[in-house]
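Consider the tokenized backbone below.
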């Protein structure tokens, strides 16, 4: 079953109430699903699915959200049970299957939990908002760097973006062409000029023909929605990229962007970057 991804239209949501559609021990998953649960222990860990989700699944160079999913009380509680004690499921990793189902991997933190959860049982999802904000700022910073490099093309001669990673401690943007450390002050200056301008960042859905007409870079892949429209992240009217990730509302919210390192390999320049963990 395809999961409705609420973050695609409103990345400011940090909590929602939805319904449980399934939960299974990781050991009972199919082989492709087990592959998605890499580094998650098998014993006492589960994959939980819901009808909707505010949790961002790992992908597009952005790490997944973490957080909790809570049921208000134990189903079928007896008079001797504490029916007010919520069932808490800690979400450690979120991944999306090829058919669009979003799997929340984690474990129950409460002493007891149901051996079976009835389909359509209500549950409240809450993501770690601080971590989401950090990941969103890193992702938006990558787009800002891409825009800055395009604006600097006449001076630097760097061509299109070929790869992006927006994960903490690994964040980088790669471009065709060769740059060196002496270019770093120029790049960082242009990047943070865009930050200081607090340009609006917004999400829209485009027809594929619009994307083809504007020759947008497809390196981050397509997030296709209803009617075959593609999700686009725009910075004012200066930049537009197909993107399935989460972003902050304007460029000023990323905080100061530091270009940590400029490196080269096989005709490609990698710009490693970071933003403050908190702003």
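A designed sequence for it:
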């Amino acid at each position: 079953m395809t999961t409705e991804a609420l973050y695609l239209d409103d990345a400011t949501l940090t909590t929602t109430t939805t319904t449980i559609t399934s939960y299974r021990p990781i050991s009972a998953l199919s082989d492709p699903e087990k592959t998605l649960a890499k580094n998650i222990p098998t014993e006492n860990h589960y994959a939980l699915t819901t009808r909707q989700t505010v949790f961002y699944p790992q992908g597009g160079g952005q790490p997944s959200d973490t957080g909790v999913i809570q049921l208000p009380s134990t189903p079928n509680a007896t008079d001797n049970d504490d029916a007010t004690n919520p069932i808490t499921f800690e979400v450690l990793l979120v991944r999306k299957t090829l058919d669009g189902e979003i799997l929340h991997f984690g474990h129950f933190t409460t002493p007891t939990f149901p051996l079976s959860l009835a389909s359509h049982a209500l549950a409240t999802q809450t993501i770690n908002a601080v971590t989401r904000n950090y990941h969103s700022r890193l992702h938006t910073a990558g787009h800002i760097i891409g825009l800055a490099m395009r604006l600097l093309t006449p001076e630097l001669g760097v061509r299109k973006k070929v790869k992006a990673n927006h994960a903490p401690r690994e964040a980088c943007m790669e471009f065709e062409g060769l740059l060196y450390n002496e270019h770093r002050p120029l790049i960082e200056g242009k990047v943070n000029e865009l930050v200081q301008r607090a340009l609006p960042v917004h999400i829209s859905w485009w027809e594929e023909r619009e994307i083809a007409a504007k020759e947008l870079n497809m390196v981050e892949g397509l997030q296709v929605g209803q009617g075959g429209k593609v999700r686009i992240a725009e910075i004012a009217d200066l930049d537009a990229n197909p993107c399935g990730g989460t972003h902050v509302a304007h460029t000023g919210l990323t905080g100061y962007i530091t270009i940590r390192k400029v490196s080269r390999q096989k005709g490609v320049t990698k710009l490693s970057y970071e933003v403050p963990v908190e702003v």
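Confidence is low (pLDDT under 50) at residues 76-80.
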